[in-house]
Amino acid sequence: xxxxxxxxxxxxxxxxxxxxSTQIASVLNCHPSTVLRKLHEFSIVIKPSAEKIEISKxxxxxxxxxxxxxxxxxxxxxxxxxxxxxxxxxxYGIVLRPNKKxxxxxxxxxxxxxKEKLSLKEIGDLYNIVPAAVLRKMRKFNIPMRTSWxxxxxxxxxxFNGSLEEKAYLIGFRLGxxxxxxxxxxxxxxxxxxxxxxxxxxxxxxxxxxPYSHVWISGPNAIGVFYFTTLLHPSxxxxxxxxxxxxxxxxxxxxxxxxFIAGYTDAEGSIGIYDGRARFRIGSYDIxxxxxxxxxxxxxxxxxxxxxxxxxxxxxxxxxxSNGDFWRVGISEKSSLLKIFxxxxxxxxxxxxxxxxxxxxxxxxxxxxxxxxx
Length: 374
Fold this sequence. Notes:
Elements (H helix, E strand, L loop, with lengths): L6 H10 L4 H8 L3 H10 L15 H10 L4 H7 L4 H10 L14 H10 L4 H8 L3 H10 L7 H4 L12 H14 L1 E4 L7 E7 L2 H11 L5 E4 L7 E7 L15 H4 L2 H15 E6 L2 E8 L2 H13 L5 E6 L15 E6 L2 H11 L6 H22 L2
Antiparallel strand pairs: 1-2, 2-4, 3-4, 5-6, 6-8, 7-8
């Protein structure tokens, strides 16, 4: 399976973080040639080869002898490899200083690597040595290596440590609006992606996942579409299944089912005032999920309808053809609307949905007040 990564992700790693194609390949678990091919596909300008970087003898003497920089520091200064720099040193006949032995205790190395979760490169930067030297010291002390996805990570990925209600909400939102895959069996990272034309949806997705990992957002493009991508810790594997049903452990618990419905509503629902009256609707092709939501409403004493809105092959007013039967759960009765609004607002996170809910609620209260005083 080919690795998945976006133009924004590759641009960040290659241009902003100034990593080489080999380093990026290590991070993304692919071959360097794949990275180079993607750079060309995304029209990202290839940086000059390190071998072509010009380093004069005068500059090298100044940095090495007068400023007392190490070869590693000089290589970073010229943005080239240590191998390239040593070629210049030999070419100019520069006699290097004896290697200074860097002492790092086992306790400090374990602290940096196992507690602080620093990469070999980050530890090397602390002590001004190359990652290979750090690796040799780790082997000397028999310090176990992390898995590849942990060791090469650039943006920290925190494991899921939320409540069951948060988990239920995320599953509901995922089934409504997110594409989720497991990146590979080696890294186990969970790839979450989506696209939308709504800035509020972008904000919601960022708020949901930025506490756990770095979030890439690009756009809007020429037609106003934003693209969202994040790589999550393997503990988010509960988001991978794409099922047309609410899991039993959620459906059998009132609070968890409400959290799930809130997530699904934030993704697929609409709350508004139509012809002067408040309405609540959720529409999708997921008849199994919508039937469970309809049944959950009935158990709560909320009167709702479940109907086929558009059969497969029909064309809506925007000219879109339905790929399948499109179903809709709706609530229009005032007492049922007030009840479900009070139950869902605790769990809903979409700013526009919450704002619309409050406006619809105010509409009902205002109409009731007008009837009482008529």
